[in-house]
Amino acid sequence: MTLLTTILGLLAAATEGPVGGGFWMPRQASTAADVVDSIFFFILWISVFFFVLIVALMVLFVIKYRRREGHESAKTATHNTALELTWTIIPLILVIIIFYVGLRGYVGMIQEPRNAYEVWVTGQRWSWTFEHDNGAVQTNVLTVPAGRPVKLKMTSTDVIHSFYIPDFRKKQDVVPGRYTYLWFEAPEPGQYQLFCAEYCGTQHSQMAGIIEVTAADEFDDVIAQKANWIDEYADEDLPRAGLRLYPRCQSCHTLDGSPLQGPSFRETHRLWGQKRIFADGSETVVDENYVRNSILNPGAQIVMNYPNVMPTFQGQLKEREIRALIEFIRKLDEVVDEQGGPRE
Length: 344
Description:
- It is a single chain.
- By secondary structure, the chain is an alpha+beta fold.
- The protein folds into three domains: 2-57 and 83-110, no CATH class; 117-227, Cupredoxins -  blue copper proteins (Immunoglobulin-like, Sandwich), CATH 2.60.40.420; 232-335, Cytochrome Bc1 Complex, Chain D, domain 2.
- Helices cover 35% and strands 19% of the residues.
- A hairpin with a 4-residue loop joins strand 6 (161-165) and strand 7 (170-174).
- Helix 5 crosses helix 7 (319-330).
- The longest helix has 32 residues, at 33-64.
């Protein structure tokens, strides 16, 4: 396969831009990107070659064998063994080569190394949640080490999503009720875009995130800090800690009064202490118990005119983080302005 690998590399180099990005592709930021791009350009150039060849022959034959006055039509050939073998054997060989290199690349992309760093991923409308083994939980930002394989174990709480990192050439469906897997290795530190590539509802375009690749010698300290960041806040600062947690809520709850899939944390008036009327006709006052129950058991009390789509955060938030969100909502006017931005 040395000759074939060389051919693939030359074809890719002829069209591909630098590793930082090019005309055809985004930058190559994982160990799998070069393999995917090489196969893509191999198939592309085969297609270009035969397109040009067929169109050129078609134009040539149209001109050369056009109908002319005074000339009788030649008898149409019905069989040519050499020609038929040629246009059968050559495409067959090319298809076998494409199948082989494609299968070889695919197997390499689904078989993760044994020393992979593992992360649990939950997709939900319309955000990504990442859970590390040390207890760190991130939303829409995934921090991973550079130069080390990373395995993602993924599931969905509602509908089918698709985890897609263009710079890594990696994409995998995320399905409710089961686990799917994806692995990658990013050699260099940097930030890379993450998207949901499966239409999942009205806020589908907002279901994006960042893969944050950290230098290997710094990763352990960084992820340990992310696991214990809430402890850095004093009790009086918990509302601002809640503002830091708010991105986990922002796909459904706004801060400026505008409704999404869920009610805004600030409607036409201050939310805290006001009555909530539920779909079953019952009502309650917005207080610590109501907010806590809404976080851990959101299906128990559905606000009137809103769907029951919020997933539970049971087991995803520490007790102090729940308190931070409660204090954030209680003191919302002290933390954010009327447009939903943080106060200075």
